Amino acid sequence: MVEGRYFYPNATHFVEARAEAGEGRVLRIADGAGAVLAEVPGKAVRATARLASLPRRFDLPDGARFDTPDNDGADALLRALGKTVSGRITDRLERAWPVVILSLVITLAAGYYLLVQAIPAASEWLARRTPPAVAHIMTEQTLMALDRFALGPTKLSAADQARATKLFQDVAAHSRGGQGAYRLVFRHDKPGGVGPNAFALPDGTIVMTDSLWPLVKDDSEIEGVFAHEMSHVDHAHGLQRIYAASLFPAILALVTGDVSNVSQMTAVLPGIIAQSAYSRSFETQADDDGAATLRRMGLKPSHMADLLERIEKSVCKKDHPCVKSWLGDHPDTDLRAARLRHEDIGPIDDHLNCWEPWKTGISLRCLGFTAN
Ligand SMILES: [Zn+2]
Questions:
Q1: Could you give the CA distance from residue 25 to residue 22 in angstroms, rounded to a whole number?
Q2: What pLDDT score does 299 carry?
């Protein structure tokens, strides 16, 4: 016996009623006094599925209906009428918080996978297939923009330029691409601009700013910088960053079907991504490759560490934060220098990778507990 309300055929008025399954799987609905309001074969009744604690509704063929908040009673009644009880699974899912939390975790994991695996992989795939002509146009555009705001014609003497170019060619001969793959250009850095710096552009052009040169005390130091930048060219790191920064908003639009946020995202995301794990892992790779090139030339990678520390001293003053420099946006100079000094004796084969703990697990050494 299930308590509920009986609504007269196609009407909004109702009476309190009870429903039960009678002989021959007949649904019988009676009012409080026991007067029969309806008697219908079970198979002619349509019932709504169970969904959380929503009231159940039994539609009768003549347009009348019976409502009840008693979900368990309604299920028992349906079974007694020989009907399958549908909606139980949905109902259980709705009630089951662990399942809700699990789907949330799966969604987050998918987003995480997209960000740290799929997008970098797709960016690398695209970067490696970018035609040289396109990389060249991108380089020219970037250099033109930099020349307008942050850079100017070099003020280095012809002798200094010739000396730097000679060292650059020596390093190129020992790098993966060979001498034809890279080109060194000099620029004066305007105050408040890119500071003492060297950076690689997509087509193999490497820019060195004037203020880096006086900080160099040993040829091996600037050779290490060139080798590091050549590694960025070899791995198309610049292109990968550009693609990663454009892919994320594109995929977001695809998934959400909403393009309105995309223009805002494109303005914000390159900055976020440039400082994220991508660039950290690129820097580690370029440092490792640079160290390997120096070793091939019979030089010590620790020279790069010396220069890093000297740059930090020159650009980070006590009363104001570090200006831009080859250190990067978030200098972790101690960690980089320690790693480079370690490379004097050979490549770091333990793949200690503090920027991408999902690849190697979290190492205590990354938290500052050093054994050496
Ligand atoms: Zn770098």
A1: 6
A2: 95
* pLDDT for 355: 56
Which residues fall inside 5 Å of ion ligand 1, going by CB?
A: 283, 286
DSSP character at residue 330: S
DSSP type of residue 215: G
Identify the three-state secondary structure at position 64: coil
Measure the N-to-C terminal CA separation of the chain; round to a whole number of Å.
78
User: What's the 215 CA to ligand 1 centre distance in angstroms?
Assistant: 17
- Structural contact between residues 211 and 198, judged by C-beta atoms closer than 8 angstroms: no
From CA 136, how far away is CA 363, in angstroms rounded? 40
pLDDT per residue as tens digits for the range 94-105: 677 787 888 889
- What's the whole-model pTM score? 0.65
**pLDDT above 70 (res 273):** no
Q: Can you list the domains of the chain with their CATH numbers?
A: 2-95 (2.30.29.30), 107-367 (no CATH)
Which residues make Cβ contacts (< 8 Å) with residue 355, sequence separation at least 6?
277, 280, 281, 284
User: Do the bridges between strand 56-59 and strand 65-68 make them parallel or antiparallel, or are there none, so unpaired?
Assistant: antiparallel
Q: Quick one: DSSP state of residue 81? A: T
Distance 121 CA to ligand 1 centre (A): 20
Give distance in angstroms: CA of 283 to centre of ligand 1: 5
Q: How many angstroms separate the alpha carbon of residue 62 from the centre of ligand 1? A: 78
Q: Are residues 328 and 347 in contact, defined by beta-carbon separation less than 8 angstroms? A: no
Cα–ligand 1 centroid distance for 366 (angstroms): 20
Distance from C-alpha of 187 to C-alpha of 270, rounded to nearest angstrom:
25
